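Design a sequence for this backbone.
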C-alpha cells in the first residue's frame, strides 16, 4: 500500500512545479497510450462517468510508446495520470520515469488480445505462416541456403506468391502501425521473430549475437510493401475496404467490431477467434496493460474509483462489457491478482518483459 505521505509529497511536487491547486487545475483523470486499449478504456471511462459523481476521464490515443513517454515525463497535473499499453513497460521506460521523479508505478494487466492480419471480406483468404510473414515484411532475408548475417540480401519479394507458391499472386501491401505502437512491437516479436526463428542458423544467432539477431528478425522493410498507417486502426479498416489487395495489422477487437467489413486470416493454421486466442492456440496474441501514477492518487480526483470500475467483474469478467467489445478475459486467479494490485496501489517491482 502506498503510504499517506506519498500524497503529501505529490502535492508538494505539484506546487513546486507551478501547478498550484491541483483540484481546480484539473478535475478529471487524464489517460494516454495504446490505440488497442483505447476502446476498452473509453467504455470503462464512460461507465465510470455515468455511475459515479466523478467526471468522465479524458483519453488520448497516442500509441503505447508515445503514451509511456508522456507518462514518464514527470509528476504534476500537466502530466497524464494513466497510460494504456499493448505491451509490458520496458526497463528503459521505468528508468526514464525514475529520472523524472515518477517512482511509484502501478501495473494492471487487463486481459489478452490477438494481433490479426485482415483484409476486405470480399478479397481472397490467406493461409499464412509466421515464416511467410517474416519473408514478406523483413528488410533483409536469407539468400537461399547461404548462412550468416553477411549473406542476407535486401528483400526481393514483390508478391505473396514469391514468398510462398501456395499464396495468391498479389502484390505485398501491408498496412500497419508505426514504431511508437505497442501493436507494432508485439507484431515484430510474435509474428516476424516467430518466422525468423524457423531458420536454424538465425535461431542460433540469438545466443551468439543477440543484437544482430534482433536486427535481422525485427527490422521491417521500407520499400513500400509495409505502409505505416498511423495509430488510427479504424482508418486501416477503411483503407482495406478501399484496397481489397491490401492486408492490415491490428488488434482482434477491431476485427471483432468490424466483422461485417473485414475478415481475419489464418496464421499457422489457426483463424483468429475469441476462443482460440483465449486458449492460446492462436500464435500471435499478447497481454494488454495500463499503468497508473500513484503520486497522483489523492491529487487528481477519482483514480481509485476508476481502477475499481476497470477491475470489476462487470467490466473485465468473462461476462463483462469489455468481453462484448473483444477483450479476452484473464483467468479468475489472474484477475484477482491484478485487482488486488490496483486496489492497494502495489508498486511495480519487475520491469523485465
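Sequence:
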Amino acid at each position: 500500500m502506498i503510504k499517506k505521505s506519498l500524497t503529501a509529497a505529490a502535492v508538494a511536487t505539484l506546487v513546486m512545479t507551478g501547478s498550484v491547486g491541483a483540484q481546480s487545475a484539473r478535475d478529471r483523470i487524464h489517460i494516454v497510450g495504446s490505440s488497442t486499449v483505447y476502446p476498452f478504456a473509453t467504455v470503462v471511462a464512460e461507465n465510470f462517468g455515468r455511475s459515479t459523481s466523478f467526471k468522465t476521464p479524458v483519453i488520448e490515443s497516442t500509441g503505447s510508446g508515445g503514451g509511456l513517454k508522456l507518462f514518464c515525463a514527470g509528476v504534476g497535473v500537466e502530466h497524464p495520470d494513466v497510460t494504456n499499453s499493448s505491451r509490458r513497460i520496458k526497463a528503459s521506460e521505468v528508468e526514464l520515469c525514475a529520472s523524472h521523479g515518477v517512482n511509484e508505478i502501478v501495473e494492471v494487466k487487463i486481459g489478452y488480445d490477438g494481433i490479426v492480419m485482415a483484409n476486405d471480406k470480399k478479397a481472397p483468404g490467406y493461409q499464412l505462416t509466421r515464416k511467410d510473414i517474416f519473408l514478406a515484411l523483413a528488410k533483409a532475408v536469407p539468400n537461399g541456403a547461404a548462412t550468416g548475417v553477411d549473406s542476407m540480401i535486401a528483400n526481393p519479394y514483390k508478391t505473396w506468391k514469391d514468398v510462398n507458391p501456395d499464396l495468391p499472386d498479389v502484390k505485398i501491401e501491408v498496412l500497419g502501425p508505426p514504431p511508437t505502437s505497442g501493436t507494432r512491437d508485439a507484431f515484430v516479436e510474435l509474428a516476424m521473430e516467430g518466422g525468423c526463428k524457423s531458420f536454424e542458423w538465425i535461431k542460433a544467432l540469438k545466443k551468439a549475437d543477440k543484437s544482430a539477431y534482433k536486427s535481422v528478425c525485427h527490422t521491417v522493410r521500407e520499400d513500400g510493401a509495409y505502409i505505416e498507417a498511423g495509430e488510427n486502426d479504424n482508418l486501416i479498416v477503411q483503407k482495406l475496404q478501399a484496397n481489397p489487395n491490401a492486408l492490415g495489422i491490428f488488434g482482434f477487437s477491431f476485427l471483432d467490431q468490424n466483422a461485417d467489413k473485414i475478415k481475419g486470416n489464418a496464421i499457422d493454421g489457426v483463424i483468429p477467434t475469441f476462443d482460440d486466442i483465449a486458449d492460446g492456440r492462436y500464435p500471435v496474441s499478447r497481454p494488454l496493460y495500463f499503468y497508473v501514477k500513484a503520486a497522483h492518487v489523492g491529487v487528481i480526483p477519482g483514480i481509485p474509483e476508476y481502477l475499481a470500475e476497470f477491475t470489476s467483474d462487470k467490466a473485465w469478467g468473462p461476462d463483462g462489457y469489455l468481453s462484448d467489445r473483444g477483450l479476452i478475459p484473464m483467468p479468475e486467479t489472474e484477475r484477482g491478482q491484478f485487482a488486488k494490485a490496483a486496489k492497494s496501489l502495489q508498486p511495480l517491482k519487475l520491469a523485465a518483459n
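Confidence is low (pLDDT under 50) at residues 1-24.
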